Every structure is written in C-alpha cells, then in structure tokens.
C-alpha cells in the first residue's frame, strides 16, 4: 500500500477550498492510487468553520482520505507537505489602499514561505491561488531560499481553461479538441490569452476562427474579464471553477502533460521570452516526472510581444512594491 501524500490547503474554510477539498479527497488530483492526508491551515477566527468542513469530509467516507488535521500554526500546517495549495489570502476591503493589501498579504506569504522551507517535504510543490497570486508566490519563494525555485507556482490555469472554453464555443468544437492554448503574464486583467500557437483538432486556431477582430475585440477581453462577469451573474466569485483549475494544475504538474499539448502555469522566469529572471509569470509549460519545462522557441509576433510586455511590466511593478516593503 502506498503511504499517504500530505496535501496542505490554506484558507480551508473559504469558498474555493470548499470546492477543492472534496475533489482532492475523491482522488481527482493525485489519482485513484494515492491516499491523501489533508492538512487544513486557517487563521484562528476561521478554525471553527474549518472543523465543519472536516466533518463534511469525514461524512464523504472517501476511501482515499486517510486523515484530516486542522491548525492555525503554519509550521504544523506544512509539516511533511508534498503539495501546498495556498488559497487563503487577505481580500481587499473597502478603503484599503493597494499598499495595505500588499503588506497584509506580505505578512501571510513571508510566514508561509518560511514555514514551507522549515517543515515541508523535500519534494514539495507549491501552488498559490490567493490573490495577487503571482506576487504572493514571489514572496513565498523568496522567503524559502532553501527550496528550489522551480517548486513555486501560481494559478493561471483557470484563465487557460476559460480561453479554451471561449475558443470551443466559437468554433463549435469540443474543448478536448483544443491544444496548445497559452496564457502569458499576470493573473490579472493584463493577462494575455494567446491562441496564435493553439490548434483546434489539426487546424491552427487562427485559421479555425478566421476572424482577427473576434480574437482581438472579443476573445481576449472576454477571457480577461470572465471573473467579473461571473461575479455579476452569480453574485459571488468563481469558486468552483477556480478549484477545478487548481486540481488540473497540480494533476498535470504531478502526472505530466499529454503528448503534443501544453498547459499554462505561472512559474519563476529563467529569462525566457524576455521575461525578467525571477518574476513569477505565466508561460506555456510541459510537465514530466514532476517537473515543468517552459516551452522553448515559440515565435512571438509584434501583437503578442506588446501584450506580454504590458503584463510583465505590471508584475515588475508589483515586485518593486513588495521589494520596497522589504518582503522579497
Ligand atoms: P475564496 O476561497 O473565494 O478565495 C481565496 C483566494 O483565491 C482569494 O485571494 C481570491 O482572490 C483568490 N482567487 C484566485 N483566483 C480566483 C478566481 N478565479 N475566483 C475567485 N477567487 C480567486 O475566498 P474566501 O474569502 O471564501 O476564503 C478565504 C479564506 O482564507 C478564509 O477562510 C480566510 O480565513 C482564509 N485565510 C487564511 C489565511 C491563512 O491560512 N493564513 C490567510 C488569509 C485568509 P480575490 O480576493 O481577488 O477574489
């Protein structure tokens, strides 16, 4: 029998975690042969609510779920973690300046970075979901210098999946027929969903669509603003689809991407595609043996170049702001 894999989820009593934890327990993330030990990390005020979630997890009688532990202590929370999903973050409240938001999240992600370095398993993989996700991941990574930088990532898979969904809808083809979608840059409204390398079946996506105006004036802004559209329709943010994307992200990082396809992950730049080294930016990546590799040598046309540069400039600004606060 396989030993259980320890998965730590922060913000465990929040909306995204409510969608996420049950999918993990059901084996959707690490597969049907991997028993899971869940560690739920919460702030003290939310520990009671996390206990309720743990009761529901127990009531799922999941065959793969070996144990659930709840804590408000990061060092206990990340103890032995092979997968760390940092979902909890401080939301912007009314009257809060951007600097206040960065400082509040800075305190959370410096502490969690240090605790991951001190306590997590040697093979830990970190996914940051809590916003501003790329910069929160940057802070955690820089506060865990003993952990390889390639173990830190932030979620742009929801944006990637949204881009696939829009292209599927437009072409009338199933989502499963779409390959090589790419999201570049920051998980923010400046992100650049790029279908110039994508295929619908065996056809280049740009030929399948054959409408430049739709790509520029409909596809890109629809993907960028999809989060707001869901808040407007549902009255609260996109929690289940974010949870589903987090599952996809860790599953593909762990089990590998399909031949001939790639996924989007925000990872530490090695300088590829002119993205300054050290920024956590979204790239097309392939995964194998638990490691990701940025897809090399793609042609970037002038249209794409300008959009990548714009989003990366925003990431550099966020980095400069947290640097000024002494967080990285
Ligand atoms: P959610 O579970 O809905 O969201 C959690 C985080 O994910 C937010 O930062 C949210 O950003 C972000 N996010 C990223 N992508 C998306 C997306 N596509 N759609 C929606 N959200 C996205 O928040 P809740 O407020 O329900 O829960 C947060 C929990 O975190 C609370 O229980 C709180 O106690 C906990 N928390 C835990 C901490 C810790 O463990 N140390 C620290 C801080 C909070 P955005 O705000 O932009 O919507």
TrEMBL record:
InterPro entries (UniProt xref): L-lactate/malate_DH, Lactate/malate_DH_C, Lactate/malate_DH_N, Lactate_DH/Glyco_Ohase_4_C, Malate_DH_AS, Malate_DH_type2, NAD(P)-bd_dom_sf
Catalytic activity: (S)-malate + NAD(+) = oxaloacetate + NADH + H(+)
Origin: domain of life: Bacteria
Active site: 187 (proton acceptor)
One Pfam family cited in the UniProt record for this chain: Ldh_1_N
Keywords carried by this UniProt record: NAD, Oxidoreductase, Tricarboxylic acid cycle
PROSITE patterns: MDH
Residues the entry annotates as binding NAD(+): 11-17, 105, 112, 129-131
EC numbers on record: 1.1.1.37
Sequence ranges assigned to domain Lactate/malate dehydrogenase C-terminal in this UniProt record: 156-321
Gene3D superfamilies attached to this UniProt entry: Lactate dehydrogenase/glycoside hydrolase, family 4, C-terminal, NAD(P)-binding Rossmann-like Domain
Residues of the Lactate/malate dehydrogenase N-terminal domain: 6-147
GO molecular function (one): L-malate dehydrogenase (NAD+) activity
PANTHER family: MALATE DEHYDROGENASE
HAMAP family per record: Malate_dehydrog_2
Family, as annotated: Belongs to the LDH/MDH superfamily. MDH type 2 family.
Protein function: Catalyzes the reversible oxidation of malate to oxaloacetate.
Protein name, entry field: Malate dehydrogenase
